[in-house]
Amino acid sequence: MDIANDLLDAIHAAYGPKSVAAARNKDAAAGQALKGEALKEVAANPGRISERVWRLSTATGDVAVKVYAEDQFARAEKEAALVAHLNLEADPRFRVQKLLRTAAGAPLWIVPRARAMVTAWAPGAIRTYDTYTPTEWAALGASLASLHLRLERYPAALPDTLRARLAALDIDTIRLELASAPGLAPADSDKRGLQGYVDTCLALIDQHYPGSLAAFPTDDPQHPIHNDYNQFNYLFGAALPPLILDWEASIGAPREYEVVRCLNHLPLEDAASAAEFVRAYLRVRPLRVELMPWAVDAACLQHALKRWMLQGWLADPRRFTTHLQGAMRMVSTMAGARAQLIDFFTRCVKEGK
Question: What is the DSSP letter of 61?
Answer without folding.
Answer: E
